[in-house]
Amino acid sequence: MTPPRTSATQLTAAQSSTSALEPDPGWGRRKLIAILAAATTAALLMLTGLGYAIHFAITPAEQTTPAPGEGSQVSQPGGIRPTGTPAAGLSTDERRDRIAAAPMPPAAPADAQPAPPATELAEPITIPPATTAGPAMVPSGFPRTPEGAVAQLAAIETTVLQAMSIPVAHAVHDAWALPGGTGADDWSLTGHVRSFLGAARMGAEKDLRTVVMATPAAAQVKGTDGPDWVLACVLLEVRAVIESEARIGYGHCERMQWQPDTGDQTGTAGGRWMIAPGDPPAPAPSTWPGTEPAIAAGWQTWVDAEPAAAPGSHDPAATVPTDGAGAAEDRG
């Protein structure tokens, strides 16, 4: 069992109390109180900053979004992608803009906090594993399926958030976003990194004592438009440790588009999913994974698919003899 983490405030208070019991003409009562107050204030500021930092995406700015057009392939709360033909008379860009702009179920800021699990089980969504490392050290090699697009988006998100670095955010965006969309400076993930670093009073990168872990916990496919375009959404469990620890659920969506291999990047043989151009999608609900608000918002439980067996490999258990005949053949 992991021992409870001791905050800087507790350590400072304990040390100050011990010093107060020892006679020391250089450390009068007023000075001890002043030091303790300063340490307490610093710790509270750090915790407050961490709170703001870890809640960087809970309350997105209000925005007006048009309703999806009739026939648009937008998912329902259960994450199901309706079948059917795109809305007649709409161009490809118009169809995709409508899917991206369709509002998602709302979530209150408190819904992102750790909470008891729902008694209802969310539908699972099986996500394929990465098979290679792509540009900017982002895991890649996902299949040309909606679940592959979800997996690629999660790999992009976790790489950026765990690094908590403005240069890394720019490098990942430059390597994984197609031209015509939001630039690296205005990318929502870059904004989240900047908010975290600013609230934690750091520079362009998190310091070595700070740990950020982002783990995919749920996902949903909001919509599709043919086999090469997906509106993918991922719900991450984000954990940050700066003197103290805080955790939230963070939902994020992106337009994803399949890009054939051009031969100028490593780890992209056969093609890869990339962030597609267009205005950012409607905000995804940030809920704590597995809770009733998460299920109501359409999040499906993230299930890692079993890696495919390598060519020529075999399962030794599948060839274990069952009647002794195989053992006799081995001896012969």
Concise synopsis of the structure shown:
31% of the residues lie in helices and 18% in strands.
Biggest β-sheet: count, sense, barrel? 6 strands, mixed
Main β-sheet, spatial strand arrangement: 1-8-4-5-6-7
Provide the succession of SSEs: HHHEEEHHHEEEEHEH
Beginning-to-end CA distance, first to last residue: 53 Å
Q: Mean pLDDT across all residues, rounded?
A: 76
Fraction in beta strands: 15-25%
- Protein structure class: alpha+beta
> What are the low-pLDDT stretches, counting only 5+ consecutive residues below 50?
1-29, 31-50, 56-85, 316-332
Instruction: Give the count of helical stretches.
Output: 8
Report the radius of gyration as a whole number of Å. 25 Å
How much helix is in the residues? Answer: 25-40%
Number of domains: 2
Task: Write structural notes for this entry.
With 332 residues, the protein is of the alpha+beta class. It has 2 domains: 8-18 and 28-54; 105-304, no CATH class. Helices cover 31% and strands 18% of the residues. The chain is built from 8 helices and 8 strands; from the N terminus they run αααβββαααββββαβα. Helix 1 packs antiparallel against helix 2, helix 2 (29-54) runs antiparallel to helix 6 (188-199) and helix 4 (146-163) runs antiparallel to helix 5 (166-176). The longest helix has 26 residues, at 29-54. The radius of gyration is 25 Å and the shape is globular. Residues 1-29, 31-50, 56-85 and 316-332 have low confidence and may be disordered.
